[in-house]
Amino acid sequence: MPGTTRNDESTLNDYLAEALRKRHPRWTADSLVAERTGVLRQRAKRPDIAVSLPGCPPVMVETKISPGRQVEQGAMERLGRKMRATGRPVESAIAVVLPTHLREGNPKAVAECNLSYAAFTADGRDPDTGVVRIDRFPEGSAWLTGDVNDLAAAIEYLSRSREQLRQGTDTLEELVSEVAALLAETVPQEALDRISKELYQLSSPQTHRMMAAIWASAFVFHYALEGQPGIPRIVSMSETSPNRTADSVPQTPQPGAIAPTNEITLERVLEVWREILKVNYWPVFVIASNLARHLPAVPASYVFE
Protein backbone atom coordinates (compact mmCIF):
# COMPACT_ATOMS: atom_id res chain seq x y z
CA MET A 1 0.00 0.00 0.00
CA PRO A 2 1.46 3.39 -0.97
CA GLY A 3 2.74 5.36 2.01
CA THR A 4 2.85 2.35 4.37
CA THR A 5 6.01 2.10 6.46
CA ARG A 6 7.97 -1.13 6.05
CA ASN A 7 9.88 -2.34 9.09
CA ASP A 8 12.94 -4.53 8.92
CA GLU A 9 14.02 -6.79 11.78
CA SER A 10 16.83 -4.45 12.84
CA THR A 11 14.35 -1.64 13.47
CA LEU A 12 12.03 -3.95 15.39
CA ASN A 13 14.96 -5.16 17.50
CA ASP A 14 15.74 -1.59 18.51
CA TYR A 15 12.16 -1.02 19.68
CA LEU A 16 11.96 -4.41 21.37
CA ALA A 17 15.15 -3.62 23.30
CA GLU A 18 13.71 -0.26 24.30
CA ALA A 19 10.56 -1.95 25.62
CA LEU A 20 12.59 -4.53 27.56
CA ARG A 21 14.71 -1.86 29.29
CA LYS A 22 11.55 -0.40 30.81
CA ARG A 23 10.86 -3.70 32.55
CA HIS A 24 14.00 -4.08 34.64
CA PRO A 25 15.81 -1.39 36.64
CA ARG A 26 19.26 -2.76 35.76
CA TRP A 27 18.67 -3.10 32.02
CA THR A 28 20.19 0.02 30.52
CA ALA A 29 21.52 1.09 27.14
CA ASP A 30 24.86 -0.44 28.21
CA SER A 31 23.65 -3.74 29.70
CA LEU A 32 20.90 -4.50 27.15
CA VAL A 33 21.93 -3.67 23.60
CA ALA A 34 20.46 -4.25 20.15
CA GLU A 35 22.24 -4.71 16.84
CA ARG A 36 25.65 -3.90 18.31
CA THR A 37 28.83 -5.25 16.74
CA GLY A 38 31.78 -6.43 18.82
CA VAL A 39 29.66 -7.93 21.58
CA LEU A 40 31.01 -11.46 21.01
CA ARG A 41 34.50 -12.74 20.33
CA GLN A 42 35.64 -14.96 17.47
CA ARG A 43 34.21 -12.77 14.72
CA ALA A 44 30.73 -13.95 15.58
CA LYS A 45 27.75 -12.38 13.86
CA ARG A 46 26.31 -9.60 15.99
CA PRO A 47 23.40 -10.72 18.18
CA ASP A 48 19.98 -9.16 17.68
CA ILE A 49 19.74 -8.34 21.40
CA ALA A 50 22.33 -9.04 24.10
CA VAL A 51 21.71 -8.80 27.85
CA SER A 52 24.76 -8.81 30.10
CA LEU A 53 24.76 -7.75 33.76
CA PRO A 54 27.80 -7.83 36.08
CA GLY A 55 27.97 -11.17 37.87
CA CYS A 56 25.26 -12.76 35.73
CA PRO A 57 25.46 -15.07 32.71
CA PRO A 58 24.78 -13.21 29.43
CA VAL A 59 21.59 -13.96 27.50
CA MET A 60 21.23 -13.54 23.75
CA VAL A 61 17.90 -12.91 21.99
CA GLU A 62 17.47 -13.73 18.31
CA THR A 63 14.38 -12.58 16.43
CA LYS A 64 12.74 -13.26 13.08
CA ILE A 65 9.42 -12.19 11.65
CA SER A 66 7.02 -15.12 11.22
CA PRO A 67 7.43 -17.81 9.95
CA GLY A 68 10.76 -17.35 11.73
CA ARG A 69 12.96 -19.50 9.53
CA GLN A 70 16.43 -20.10 10.98
CA VAL A 71 15.67 -18.21 14.23
CA GLU A 72 16.23 -21.34 16.32
CA GLN A 73 19.49 -22.07 14.55
CA GLY A 74 20.59 -18.49 15.12
CA ALA A 75 19.88 -18.76 18.85
CA MET A 76 21.71 -22.08 19.20
CA GLU A 77 24.76 -20.71 17.39
CA ARG A 78 25.17 -18.14 20.19
CA LEU A 79 25.66 -20.80 22.87
CA GLY A 80 29.25 -21.27 23.97
CA ARG A 81 30.39 -18.03 22.36
CA LYS A 82 32.31 -15.69 24.66
CA MET A 83 31.55 -12.07 25.50
CA ARG A 84 34.27 -9.79 24.22
CA ALA A 85 34.29 -7.61 27.35
CA THR A 86 34.37 -10.32 30.03
CA GLY A 87 35.23 -13.60 28.30
CA ARG A 88 32.16 -15.15 29.93
CA PRO A 89 30.51 -17.83 27.77
CA VAL A 90 26.91 -17.53 26.63
CA GLU A 91 24.87 -20.13 28.52
CA SER A 92 21.40 -19.18 27.27
CA ALA A 93 19.67 -17.77 24.20
CA ILE A 94 16.05 -17.12 23.28
CA ALA A 95 14.57 -17.47 19.80
CA VAL A 96 11.67 -15.05 19.26
CA VAL A 97 9.20 -15.11 16.36
CA LEU A 98 7.56 -11.75 15.72
CA PRO A 99 4.05 -11.54 14.21
CA THR A 100 3.82 -10.68 10.52
CA HIS A 101 1.76 -7.51 11.06
CA LEU A 102 4.90 -5.83 12.44
CA ARG A 103 6.33 -5.68 8.92
CA GLU A 104 4.22 -2.58 8.43
CA GLY A 105 3.02 0.32 10.55
CA ASN A 106 4.37 1.66 13.82
CA PRO A 107 7.35 -0.42 14.98
CA LYS A 108 6.60 0.53 18.61
CA ALA A 109 3.74 -1.97 18.41
CA VAL A 110 6.32 -4.68 19.18
CA ALA A 111 5.96 -3.64 22.83
CA GLU A 112 2.27 -4.58 22.87
CA CYS A 113 1.96 -7.67 20.67
CA ASN A 114 2.04 -11.38 21.39
CA LEU A 115 5.32 -13.17 20.71
CA SER A 116 6.30 -16.79 20.24
CA TYR A 117 9.57 -17.83 21.82
CA ALA A 118 11.70 -20.78 22.93
CA ALA A 119 14.71 -20.90 25.25
CA PHE A 120 17.98 -22.73 24.57
CA THR A 121 20.55 -23.47 27.27
CA ALA A 122 24.03 -24.95 27.03
CA ASP A 123 24.41 -28.12 29.08
CA GLY A 124 28.15 -28.53 28.93
CA ARG A 125 30.15 -30.06 26.08
CA ASP A 126 30.24 -33.60 24.81
CA PRO A 127 33.47 -35.10 26.22
CA ASP A 128 34.21 -36.92 22.96
CA THR A 129 33.36 -34.32 20.32
CA GLY A 130 33.59 -31.07 22.30
CA VAL A 131 30.26 -29.99 20.80
CA VAL A 132 27.98 -27.93 23.07
CA ARG A 133 25.00 -29.96 24.32
CA ILE A 134 21.80 -27.94 24.03
CA ASP A 135 18.51 -28.13 25.90
CA ARG A 136 15.36 -26.57 24.41
CA PHE A 137 12.35 -25.36 26.36
CA PRO A 138 9.66 -26.22 25.52
CA GLU A 139 10.90 -29.55 24.21
CA GLY A 140 10.38 -30.59 20.61
CA SER A 141 8.79 -28.06 18.28
CA ALA A 142 6.40 -26.32 20.71
CA TRP A 143 6.61 -22.59 21.42
CA LEU A 144 5.81 -20.41 24.40
CA THR A 145 3.55 -17.44 23.76
CA GLY A 146 3.37 -14.17 25.65
CA ASP A 147 4.03 -10.45 25.53
CA VAL A 148 7.14 -8.39 26.29
CA ASN A 149 6.58 -8.83 30.04
CA ASP A 150 6.76 -12.60 29.64
CA LEU A 151 9.86 -12.34 27.48
CA ALA A 152 11.48 -10.08 30.11
CA ALA A 153 10.70 -12.64 32.82
CA ALA A 154 12.31 -15.38 30.71
CA ILE A 155 15.46 -13.29 30.22
CA GLU A 156 15.63 -12.51 33.94
CA TYR A 157 15.35 -16.21 34.80
CA LEU A 158 18.01 -17.24 32.29
CA SER A 159 20.39 -14.54 33.54
CA ARG A 160 20.87 -16.72 36.62
CA SER A 161 23.17 -19.69 36.08
CA ARG A 162 22.00 -23.13 37.10
CA GLU A 163 24.51 -23.20 39.93
CA GLN A 164 23.33 -19.82 41.19
CA LEU A 165 19.72 -20.98 41.05
CA ARG A 166 20.57 -24.17 42.91
CA GLN A 167 22.44 -22.27 45.61
CA GLY A 168 19.64 -19.72 45.88
CA THR A 169 17.01 -22.45 46.20
CA ASP A 170 19.01 -24.23 48.89
CA THR A 171 19.47 -20.99 50.81
CA LEU A 172 15.78 -20.12 50.57
CA GLU A 173 14.73 -23.58 51.75
CA GLU A 174 17.07 -23.30 54.72
CA LEU A 175 15.76 -19.82 55.55
CA VAL A 176 12.13 -20.93 55.35
CA SER A 177 12.81 -23.85 57.69
CA GLU A 178 14.57 -21.62 60.22
CA VAL A 179 11.80 -19.01 60.19
CA ALA A 180 9.10 -21.68 60.51
CA ALA A 181 10.86 -23.05 63.59
CA LEU A 182 11.20 -19.54 65.00
CA LEU A 183 7.47 -18.94 64.50
CA ALA A 184 6.60 -22.08 66.44
CA GLU A 185 8.99 -21.12 69.22
CA THR A 186 8.21 -17.41 69.69
CA VAL A 187 4.69 -16.67 68.39
CA PRO A 188 1.68 -17.48 70.60
CA GLN A 189 -0.53 -20.26 69.28
CA GLU A 190 -3.52 -17.90 69.10
CA ALA A 191 -1.66 -15.67 66.65
CA LEU A 192 -0.52 -18.66 64.59
CA ASP A 193 -4.12 -19.85 64.40
CA ARG A 194 -5.27 -16.45 63.09
CA ILE A 195 -2.55 -16.39 60.44
CA SER A 196 -3.33 -19.97 59.45
CA LYS A 197 -6.98 -19.03 59.04
CA GLU A 198 -5.96 -16.30 56.57
CA LEU A 199 -4.35 -19.09 54.53
CA TYR A 200 -7.41 -21.34 54.90
CA GLN A 201 -5.23 -23.84 56.76
CA LEU A 202 -4.89 -25.34 60.22
CA SER A 203 -1.81 -24.35 62.17
CA SER A 204 0.91 -26.92 61.47
CA PRO A 205 4.63 -27.03 60.62
CA GLN A 206 3.74 -27.04 56.92
CA THR A 207 1.51 -23.98 57.34
CA HIS A 208 4.29 -22.23 59.26
CA ARG A 209 6.62 -22.92 56.32
CA MET A 210 4.02 -21.41 54.03
CA MET A 211 3.95 -18.23 56.15
CA ALA A 212 7.74 -18.04 56.13
CA ALA A 213 7.88 -18.52 52.35
CA ILE A 214 5.35 -15.72 51.75
CA TRP A 215 7.29 -13.25 53.89
CA ALA A 216 10.62 -14.32 52.41
CA SER A 217 9.24 -13.78 48.90
CA ALA A 218 7.99 -10.31 49.85
CA PHE A 219 11.38 -9.29 51.27
CA VAL A 220 13.26 -10.66 48.24
CA PHE A 221 10.89 -8.86 45.87
CA HIS A 222 11.17 -5.67 47.91
CA TYR A 223 14.96 -5.84 47.75
CA ALA A 224 14.78 -6.13 43.95
CA LEU A 225 12.52 -3.07 43.77
CA GLU A 226 14.57 -0.81 46.07
CA GLY A 227 15.79 2.33 44.39
CA GLN A 228 12.82 2.64 42.06
CA PRO A 229 10.50 5.66 42.40
CA GLY A 230 8.05 5.31 45.25
CA ILE A 231 9.77 2.28 46.76
CA PRO A 232 11.13 3.07 50.27
CA ARG A 233 13.75 1.02 52.07
CA ILE A 234 12.86 -0.90 55.21
CA VAL A 235 16.20 0.02 56.80
CA SER A 236 18.66 2.79 56.03
CA MET A 237 22.42 2.36 55.83
CA SER A 238 23.74 1.44 59.25
CA GLU A 239 26.20 3.69 61.01
CA THR A 240 28.54 0.69 61.15
CA SER A 241 27.92 -0.46 57.58
CA PRO A 242 31.15 -1.32 55.73
CA ASN A 243 29.78 0.59 52.75
CA ARG A 244 29.52 3.80 54.71
CA THR A 245 32.31 6.33 54.13
CA ALA A 246 33.47 9.42 55.97
CA ASP A 247 31.87 11.47 53.23
CA SER A 248 28.49 9.81 53.62
CA VAL A 249 25.84 12.31 54.61
CA PRO A 250 22.37 11.24 55.73
CA GLN A 251 19.81 12.30 53.17
CA THR A 252 16.94 14.51 54.24
CA PRO A 253 13.69 12.72 53.42
CA GLN A 254 11.32 14.38 51.01
CA PRO A 255 8.08 15.84 52.44
CA GLY A 256 5.66 13.00 53.11
CA ALA A 257 8.34 10.33 52.71
CA ILE A 258 9.00 7.68 55.33
CA ALA A 259 11.91 8.64 57.57
CA PRO A 260 14.89 6.27 57.43
CA THR A 261 15.60 3.89 60.29
CA ASN A 262 17.99 1.08 61.15
CA GLU A 263 15.36 -0.98 63.00
CA ILE A 264 13.23 -3.73 61.49
CA THR A 265 9.96 -3.63 63.38
CA LEU A 266 6.49 -4.86 62.53
CA GLU A 267 5.23 -1.27 62.40
CA ARG A 268 8.05 -0.29 60.05
CA VAL A 269 7.54 -3.25 57.71
CA LEU A 270 3.79 -2.67 57.42
CA GLU A 271 4.31 1.06 56.90
CA VAL A 272 6.78 0.50 54.06
CA TRP A 273 4.65 -2.16 52.40
CA ARG A 274 1.65 0.21 52.49
CA GLU A 275 3.74 2.71 50.54
CA ILE A 276 4.67 0.07 47.98
CA LEU A 277 1.01 -0.88 47.56
CA LYS A 278 0.31 2.72 46.54
CA VAL A 279 2.57 2.03 43.55
CA ASN A 280 1.40 -1.53 42.73
CA TYR A 281 2.54 -5.11 43.41
CA TRP A 282 -0.66 -6.13 45.20
CA PRO A 283 -0.33 -9.92 44.73
CA VAL A 284 2.94 -9.92 46.71
CA PHE A 285 2.50 -7.36 49.45
CA VAL A 286 -1.22 -7.55 50.27
CA ILE A 287 -0.97 -11.20 51.30
CA ALA A 288 2.28 -10.67 53.20
CA SER A 289 0.83 -7.63 55.00
CA ASN A 290 -2.41 -9.36 55.91
CA LEU A 291 -0.50 -12.21 57.51
CA ALA A 292 1.99 -9.97 59.29
CA ARG A 293 -0.73 -7.92 61.01
CA HIS A 294 -1.51 -10.89 63.24
CA LEU A 295 2.03 -11.12 64.60
CA PRO A 296 2.85 -9.69 68.04
CA ALA A 297 5.41 -6.88 67.76
CA VAL A 298 8.34 -8.53 69.55
CA PRO A 299 8.29 -11.93 67.81
CA ALA A 300 7.74 -10.13 64.50
CA SER A 301 11.07 -8.32 64.90
CA TYR A 302 12.85 -11.65 65.44
CA VAL A 303 11.11 -13.22 62.46
CA PHE A 304 11.75 -10.37 60.03
CA GLU A 305 15.37 -9.92 61.03
Question: What is the topological layout?
Answer:
Layout: H1 9-21, E1 32-34, E2 49-51, E3 59-65, H2 71-78, E4 92-98, E5 115-125, E6 132-137, E7 144-146, H3 148-158, H4 162-186, H5 189-198, H6 205-225, H7 266-279, H8 282-292, H9 297-304
Parallel strand pairs: 3-4
Antiparallel strand pairs: 1-2, 2-3, 4-5, 5-6, 5-7
Helix pairs in contact: 4-6, 6-8, 7-8
Characterise the protein shown here.
The longest helix has 25 residues, at 162-186. The protein is elongated. It has 9 helices and 7 strands; from the N terminus they run αβββαββββααααααα. It has helices at residues 9-21, 71-78, 148-158, 162-186, 189-198, 205-225, 266-279, 282-292, 297-304; strands at residues 32-34, 49-51, 59-65, 92-98, 115-125, 132-137, 144-146. Strands 1, 2, 3, 4, 5, 6 and 7 form a 7-stranded mixed sheet that branches. By secondary structure, it is of the alpha+beta class.
Give the helix/strand class: alpha+beta
Strand content: 5-15%
Q: Low-confidence runs (pLDDT<50, min 5 residues)?
A: 237-261
Order of helices and strands: HEEEHEEEEHHHHHHH
Annotation, overall tally of beta strands: 7
Helix content: 25-40%
Q: What's the tally of helices?
A: 9
Average pLDDT number: 82
What keyword list fits this structure?
305 residues, alpha+beta, seven-stranded mixed beta sheet, 9 helices, 7 strands
